[in-house]
Design goal:
Helix content is 4%, strand content 69%. By secondary structure, the protein is mainly beta. Strand 17 and strand 18 form a beta hairpin. It is globular. It has a 22-stranded antiparallel barrel. A 6-stranded mixed sheet has the order 3-4-10-11-8-9, with no helix packed on it. Strands 5-6-7 form a 3-stranded antiparallel sheet. The protein contains 4 helices and 42 strands.
Length: 707
């Protein structure tokens, strides 16, 4: 415990100091240099930059990010928390939208987590965290937007890079790939390839108490489950694109992106049932196996035309994504003690085909140097076909289980128009916008014959203002209305079994969340940045558990509560104590409160919590850089449940070689091996405690070379 406190204090000592914005650069050297005879000018960039409208995490300049997956890198971004299932929250709030190069992802949270796990951090330039976006952005994401910006090269001739890394946690990990660019006059061709293998082993312990519905204080049963999982993931990601400058005012481009992956989850464990609670009623050995494949192809065409050198600019984007996802499950049970109760062996196949078309037209119209109008249109058409078939073993035969088999078709259209006004003077920056989104959704459960159709129209206003004085003081405020629609996975009523006693089921009657968010902030001489924020969400979606008493099964799903409130304060600070040492920190204090009625019970769940992210960067002689990153997340609530606090400490070092064209990096994540998740809660007639011992301590050695 003393060592833990020591590391926490050492890594977080940068909090009560001054901050800097993009106007002041820290001591971390980047690759940009200009040779002027005997003079070499180096431009230094910070790992974290706090801008007026977003936080920018420079992944390409972070030693700890090398050799990681994008999901692991997101877990080290200020204010971002990645759950044990790969779901994202921002500043303690769920409902985050993810964009890749400014394009909104249409994948479910499960599919997106697999994609981010299989994407190498070497292809990422920056991660932008936008808590309160303008009307130009999609209104999706009640907690804000995370934009993952991929690397591009504008240099003439042939250039690129190769990279490789190897790591070891409880299992081996490997990443390798290359990027290649060719540019000549008006033509540019670029592409990249990444191969990823990630071995992972996790240990899980679930304890659940079940109560008599007529007497909530009387325990009927207790279950204790222990699992050890092996979760190998293999992926191959490709991208090929070209841009051509037709005229000095017009350019077009084409990109083809392919992501092919395979994920296994092999789980072995023991499930014990105590009924009555002091007597072992049954003990079952469990063998669960889940195999997932995905094939995701995206084709996009984009173009830009400037009507005059200082006039209107038009941007056109057309994109089509085709994604196939297949999951095969098998659950086998072996009784370890004699009991009259039996649990059937089960297997299932859940294929999914997703098609998404996006069309977007944007205009930027500068009337004067101070006044600009942005306006445009976007249409998204989405379809998902998901026939799930489950079988149970009866005797020596497998038969279809009619209670869990279902064919699900989902169609959605979203059409949006927006207008945004910007005013920029010497002291003032003002932005006001209005976005209108029309949504039409059709769900057809073919097996049961049920059909659910809905359509709705929403206006989403937004506004921001910033005032800067000549003495270095800045004040800003912003407001936006946002929406978080349930994904096709959230709405799908099929069952996804984790084991005989736990399964996930979607809720076809989920309603979208609507959020009003506002924040105010203050900067002093571009050193100290402080923000107060508040948001209120109606029809908030939250995870709940229901208990099937006759089968001792816990069902996890989503339900709408009437509202939630989220408010807090952040403090961002950066300081250069010496020429070689930079300290950057972000402190976030917040309160989540959920209110509503569920199962005829009034709910008022709230929890004051805080997060602290501290980054220490060192530029040492002979081309050596080092980083120490510490994060602490206090106890917080996720809907109706509490997550215990946890701490993460990661360290890394790099050295330039081969005349500064290459670099070798060594990193160790979760140095103290205490980054684990514990989820606890009481849900009317059940009480749960779920502990996840993650495969989080990983040593990684990586090599990167610029061609």
């Amino acid at each position: 415990m003393k060592n833990r406190i020591y590391f926490l204090l050492l890594s977080c000592c940068s909090l009560p100091v001054f901050a800097q914005t993009e106007a002041q650069l820290d001591s971390m050297y980047n690759a940009m240099s200009t040779d002027l005879g005997e003079v070499v000018i180096r431009v230094n960039r910070p790992v974290f930059q706090q801008k007026a409208d977003k936080m920018v995490f420079s992944v390409e300049h972070s030693v700890l990010s090398e050799g990681s997956t994008v999901l692991e890198v997101l877990g080290r971004a200020p204010g971002v928390v990645v759950s044990q299932d790969g779901e994202l929250s921002l500043r303690g709030k769920q409902g985050v939208s993810v964009m890749i190069n400014g394009k909104l992802s249409s994948l479910s949270s499960k599919e997106l987590a697999n994609l981010l796990r299989s994407t190498n951090s070497a292809v990422v330039k920056n991660i932008e965290i936008i808590a309160n976006p303008s009307a130009k952005y999609d209104a999706a994401g009640q907690a804000g937007i995370i934009n993952i910006v991929l690397k591009t090269s504008l240099l003439d001739g042939i250039n690129g890079s190769v990279f490789a890394s190897g790591g070891r946690g409880r299992k081996n990990r490997m990443n390798t790939g290359f990027t290649l660019n060719y540019a000549h006059q008006a033509w540019r061709v670029y592409g990249d390839y990444t191969h990823t293998f990630r071995g992972e082993e996790e240990r899980k312990t679930f304890d659940q108490d079940f109560f008599d519905a007529a007497s909530p204080t009387t325990p009927l049963r207790h279950t204790h489950q222990q699992y050890k999982t092996s979760e190998p993931l293999t992926s191959n990601n490709f991208k090929l694109g070209t841009d051509y400058q037709l005229t000095p005012k017009t350019s077009i481009g084409l990109v083809v992106d392919a992501k092919i992956g395979r994920y296994e989850n092999k789980s072995a464990g023991i499930s014990q049932i105590y009924a009555p609670i002091s007597s072992l009623y049954s003990s079952i050995g469990t063998d669960n196996y889940n195999l997932e494949h995905w094939y995701d192809y995206t084709y996009s065409l984009h173009g830009t035309h400037a009507f005059s050198e200082q006039g209107t600019v038009m941007d056109v984007d057309v994109e089509y994504e085709r994604s196939k996802f297949n999951s095969k499950q098998r659950q086998l049970q072996t009784p370890l003690i004699s009991t009259a109760e039996r649990y059937a062996n089960r297997k299932g196949e859940i294929p999914s085909t997703l098609g998404v078309f996006n069309g977007k037209l944007d205009f930027t119209i500068p009337f004067t140097e101070q006044h600009t109008i942005e306006t445009g249109w976007k249409s998204t058409v989405k379809s998902n076909n998901n026939p799930s078939v489950y079988h149970v073993e009866v005797g020596d035969h497998w038969i279809v289980d009619p209670e869990t088999t279902n064919q699900y078709e989902y169609k959605e259209q979203i059409h949006a128009a927006y207008i945004n006004y910007k005013l920029a003077t010497a002291h003032w920056q003002i932005q006001m916008g209005l976005r209108n989104e029309y949504t039409e959704r059709d769900i057809h459960q073919k097996t049961t014959g049920e059909q659910h159709q809905t359509d709705y129209n929403n206006l989403f206003p937004s506004a921001s203002i910033k005032y800067e004085t000549d003495q270095g003081h800045s004040y800003y405020a912003s407001y936006s209305k946002r929406i978080n629609r349930p994904s096709h996975f959230d709405l799908n009523p099929f069952r996804f079994y984790n084991d005989p006693f736990n399964y996930w089921q979607g809720n076809v009657r989920l309603k979208p969340e609507l959020t009003h968010a506002t924040e105010v902030g203050y900067m002093w001489s571009n050193y100290l940045i402080a923000t107060l924020y508040f948001s209120r969400t109606q029809d908030v979606m939250t995870q709940v558990y229901t208990y099937e008493q006759n089968q001792t099964i816990l069902v996890k799903t989503l339900e709408n509560l009437s509202k939630s409130c989220h408010y807090g304060a952040t403090l961002t600070a950066t300081l250069n104590p010496t020429d070689f040492w930079t300290m950057s920190s972000m402190f976030n204090l917040f309160n989540n409160q959920y209110k509503g009625t569920y199962q005829e019970t009034s709910i008022d769940s709230k929890q004051v919590a805080f997060t602290l992210n501290a980054q220490n960067s060192f530029t040492l002689p002979k081309g050596i850089k080092a980083e120490v990153n510490a994060q602490y997340f206090s106890k917080s609530n996720i809907g109706l449940y509490k997550r215990e606090g946890y701490f993460d400490l990661s360290i890394g070092a790099s050295k330039t070689i081969l005349q500064e064209k290459g670099s070798v990096k060594l990193a160790l994540s979760d140095v103290l091996k205490i980054n684990h998740f514990t989820l606890m809660g009481t849900n009317f007639d059940s009480r749960i405690k779920q502990e996840y011992d993650l495969d989080s301590r990983i040593v990684t050695l990586s090599f990167h070379y610029k061609l």
